[in-house]
Amino acid sequence: MKKQIQLIHQQKVLWGCLFLLSILSLYLLLNQPKTLVQFDLKGTISTFESDIAKRQLTIEQQNVIIKRFTQQLDITLDSYSDEHNLVILVSPAVITGLDDVTASIQEALFIALSNKDA
Prior knowledge:
Elements: H1 2-30, E1 35-39, H2 41-54, H3 59-84, E2 86-90, E3 99-100, H4 102-117
């Protein structure tokens, strides 16, 4: 009888441990740490400014385009960060060793801006 009680107790402890491991695994799966990456914000803005300078636009037109660009840049950075589970740092804040996602973000930004033009 005592062995049966011990066996039942061991089974309860085992099931409890399995339950806790399952909960921990689920938590870790859902809360994966974010990866740090870098983005060349200054270069992106410089490229945009160069493009604007080449066009024959009034000050009002420039202001509209600049506002749309800055709004879409914020949206693109936020969505890219969320979709890829990233923390995006500007390049000057990084000494070395982080992946550069500038080209990917610029492409997503260009596509978003092009879609708004259509």
